[in-house]
């Protein structure tokens, strides 16, 4: 593992197509950095701030972005595979289309995020904040959403099969034509006070 870069600030840097490999950044700030088509494998960003950073078509595998802040970033066609984003916050970011496969996104804050049509599969998202988020038409399958904040979220036409929906109050979300499996239907019916016999 390379020596970590700590408390550095990067501004207006062109890292287009850069291979970040397994680089390690701690409490660093990135402003107006172009990471379009960049790749990372095992990289670590801990407590970093990203402002107006372009992650367009970037690919990240087994990397960590823990306790990071993403402000006004563009993640168009970005892919995160097996990544850890525990405790990170997204604000005013362009997150579509985004692909997340595996990994741990617990305690991530995505309030009000536009996540229409995104693809999130087999991810741990415990206590994620999706308050007011728009997941219309999204694929959210096999996801651990236990204790998630889903109030006022839009789940219309979303595929939620295989996900933990124990935190879902169907009376406070938009849910028309959302797809669930039979097991989830039982959980939701019980949450509404029905007795299954």
TrEMBL record:
Coiled-coil segments: none
Listed SUPFAM superfamilies: Pentapeptide repeat-like
Transmembrane segments: none
Pfam families: Pentapeptide (PF00805)
Database matches in InterPro entries: 5peptide_repeat, Pentapeptide-BTB/POZ_domain
Protein name as catalogued: Pentapeptide repeat-containing protein
Protein species of origin: Micromonospora globbae
């Amino acid at each position: 593992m390379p020596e970590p870069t700590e408390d550095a600030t990067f501004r207006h840097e062109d890292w287009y197509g850069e291979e970040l490999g397994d680089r390690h950044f701690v409490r660093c700030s990135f402003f107006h950095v172009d990471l379009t088509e960049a790749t990372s494998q095992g990289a670590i960003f801990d407590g970093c701030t990203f402002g107006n950073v372009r992650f367009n078509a970037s690919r990240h595998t087994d990397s960590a972005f823990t306790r990071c802040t993403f402000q006004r970033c563009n993640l168009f066609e970005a892919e995160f595979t097996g990544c850890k984003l525990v405790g990170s916050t997204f604000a005013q970011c362009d997150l579509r289309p985004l692909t997340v496969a595996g990994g741990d996104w617990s305690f991530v804050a995505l309030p009000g995020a536009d996540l229409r049509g995104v693809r999130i599969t087999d991810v741990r998202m415990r206590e994620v904040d999706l308050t007011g988020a728009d997941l219309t038409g999204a694929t959210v399958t096999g996801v651990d959403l236990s204790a998630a904040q889903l109030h006022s979220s839009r789940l219309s036409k979303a595929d939620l099969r295989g996900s933990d929906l124990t935190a879902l109050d169907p009376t406070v979300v938009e849910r028309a034509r959302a797809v669930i499996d039979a097991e989830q239907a039982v959980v939701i019916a019980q949450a509404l006070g029905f007795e299954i016999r």
